Amino acid sequence: MSGNDVMFVRDLLKQFGTFIYTGNQLDDLVLMELELQDLYEYKMVSDEDYMKTKLILSKAKRELEKQK
Q1: Backbone angles phi, psi at 60, to 5 degrees
Q2: Owning domain of residue 9
Q3: Record's InterPro entries (predicted)?
Q4: Which of 13, 17, 36, 58 has the most CB atoms at less than 10 Å from its CB?
């Protein structure tokens, strides 16, 4: 996973005025997932973007957990 993938997610969230930074990468990823789920439920993001971001965040979380 490249940093560009997570930046895609951050940029998508910024379009809705959402900026997430907790100082903990894993917590950031979890919060991004929750925010995207809410946006998807309210039909504010497309199915395609939602699935793409879910995959990106899942992969990023797995990679972070491997580093521990």
Answers
A1: -65, -40
A2: 3-60
A3: YqgQ-like, YqgQ-like_sf
A4: 36
In angstroms, the Cα distances linking 8 to 29, 41, 49 are 13, 20, 10
How many domains does the structure of the chain reveal?
1
| pLDDT above 70 as % of the chain | 96
Please give the DSSP secondary-structure letter assigned to residue 68. -
CATH number at residue 24: 1.10.287.760
Q: Is there a contact between 7 and 21 (Cβ–Cβ < 8 Å)? A: no
Tell me the per-residue pLDDT of 20-53, one tens digit each, with 9 for 90 and over.
Answer: 999 999 999 999 999 999 999 999 999 999 999 9
